Amino acid sequence: MEINQFPEDIRPYLLPEPRGLMVYRCLGCAREFDITRLLYTCAECGSVLLLHDKNKHLINGVGGKKWREIFDYRRMLNHNALKGVFRYYEFIAPIIPLDRIIYLGEGHTPLVEANNRLKERVGLDFYFKNDGLNPSASFKDRGMACALSYINYLAKNEHMGKILAICASTGDTSASAALYASYLEDFLKSAVLLPQGKVTPQQLSQPLGSGARVLEMPGVFDDCMEVVESLAENYDVALLNSKNSWRILGQESFSFEIAQDFDYEVGDKTVVVPIGNAGNITAVMSGFLKFYKSGVIDRLPKIVGVQSEHADPVYRYYQEKDSFRRNFVPVTVRPSVAQAAMIGNPVSMPRVIELAKEYDKTAGERKIFVVQVSEQEIMDSMVVANRNGNIACTQGGESLAGLQKAVEAGYIKSSEVGVLDSTAHVLKFSVFQDMYFNNTFGPEFNVIPKPELANTPVQVHPKGLSRYPSTGQPLSEDEMKTFIREMTAEIARILNLEKR
Questions:
Q1: In this structure, are residues 449 and 437 in contact, taking their beta carbons and an 8 Å threshold?
Q2: What fold, for 139-250?
Q3: Which of these, 170, 129, 143, 142, lies nearest to 391 by C-alpha position?
Q4: Taking the domains of the chain in order of start, what are their residue ranges?
Q5: How far is CA 302 from the centre of its chain?
Q6: pTM of the full predicted structure?
Q7: Same fold, 111-135+252-453 and 139-250
Q8: Which of 51, 160, 195, 424 has its CA 20 to 30 A from that of 325?
Q9: Structure confidence at residue 340 (pLDDT)
Q10: What is the sign of the dihedral through the CA atoms of 97, 98, 100 and 105?
């Protein structure tokens, strides 16, 4: 639609002008810092930061009803900058001009309703939100679109020269960072640091294909993160992990989209997300809080974070019921099929603690829960989900297993509706599906495939055939007729087909 086709009272809001006044705010000492430089931790106390819009009164002054209309009308607008996560421009980064926003097709991933078999298995209605349908095939693109749009804006405003963007990754972050950085190749190069042997071949191929400098080192993700943090503290590089507050802002769009797709009625919803570096659950909480405080939604949904028993520091923290006695202790991770969540010391943990308190306090009741699942439950759930029409990765399987645990624990009522974060496309983690189907998991995974869920190719070799077609050696006409006849009969036998 053209602008002049929209209602007159909506037209002034459709193409927003920068009006924000954003600052970094420290979660430790509450000190504020200017955003005209790349900053990841507090220069005073070293704690992590969140971005804060000091002009948020402009948002609150519009009113929830009007915001709902604005977002619904923007859905019909043909403007690249506002097609992705920046449809919710004022709630994300309202200081970036529209012509600096990078859009590669991210955001607005579909909600796919579970079929009846899956609903019966879990005991309630639920949906998968397929974030594997983002450009790099994972949810990381939401945050990267915002972080790279900010860098694009800052670099041109401050006349910066060549910039090197760097991240540690278990696969998805590196793929996303490399993809978005390659779009800005005129002034931005990227390097990614991966734990050697702990990234799937499919994920490794992505940053290589996007032209990033890929560095593999011994250790796990937490070790890579320590090195990347040291590089960011001592060298002039742009850190693209979720320690980067701009990443969190972009990932808040996950919450905004869920609200819009359910016509802003989310009080009866439970959003289930895997916890890796804790940036995603931070963003989900923050996003819903923003919508609630501005009146866009009138109730907050429940949020369930899920961790594997092989990497469960956040779950252990919340096992202590007395909040005053809680003490966060990093864990040494064990091998996990949910590789993106295999993190023992999540950098966003201080954000989680702060926002979870605020979320429950704002809701007036407990709304944040954390559950633990086994590696067996993750793999079984991934295979079952995909046997029922979904494209869930291992983290999507983790979400489904977590939903079942939350139902069993009584955190979710049967009358409520689940929304599961399938963070990446199944093809990025197909190696684990192959291991499940072929029973090749090592003992460190604690996964024993269920025979009824295994699926492997069947080699078809009819006994009555002596010759088969091959490249460059076609069969004669009579041999081909025999081949088709015998092969048809054998396949019909295997599939238990009845002749007409």
A1: yes
A2: Rossmann fold (3.40.50)
A3: 129
A4: 111-135+252-453, 139-250, 458-500
A5: 18
A6: 0.94
A7: yes
A8: 51
A9: 82
A10: positive
